[in-house]
Predict the structure.
Amino acid sequence: GAVVSQHPSRVICKSGTSVKIECRSLDFQATTMFWYRQFPKQSLMLMATSNEGSKATYEQGVEKDKFLINHASLTLSTLTVTSAHPEDSSFYICSAGRTEAFFGQGTRLTVV
Amino acid sequence: GNSVTQMEGPVTLSEEAFLTINCTYTATGYPSLFWYVQYPGEGLQLLLKATKADDKGSNKGFEATYRKETTSFHLEKGSVQVSDSAVYFCALSDQGSGGSNYKLTFGKGTLLTVNP
């Protein structure tokens, strides 16, 4: 089946710094990728839709200036958490797919 | 808007026990329904799906039937194994999202632990 690779799997950063998370489709081209966030004991919440070659579409309540999304190629989308704060600590996961949604392994972000 | 409500865990069972994880949904239109599984340290994997009312999805001994009249998609397995220990997510896709690019609404997830 199709593979989506996400990197890094875990990252710890200091408050105020920025962190970039990569999501790659390894064996197919993805014009659209989705970024989700999961709080402890909560659902995966859709943050934004990443569109190749155009601006991302953000869900209501998600700060587009804090969560920068770039989808510069058909196989790569990046999520950058800018000026991270402890409340941004969470599990971030991406998905892509044509006939079904394939998920990356997820990234555990801890901001200290 | 769309929403998915699934049974809160954790669920702890002995090997060979019967499993049910309840899932109900609210959606406009006719969504597709999914169960995803997340094994420790791994990403989400599609377990099974159903795209229309009365469809039954099945895989690895797990089953779920799309019940439009009760807006439910309960996951069942007749005899669980230790290797089934994972987090299970019920989800639906918004049919209006553009077709083949699946944007999903998830339930909170249910942690299943199966003891030998």
Chain B has a mean pLDDT of 90. Chain B has no helices and twelve strands.
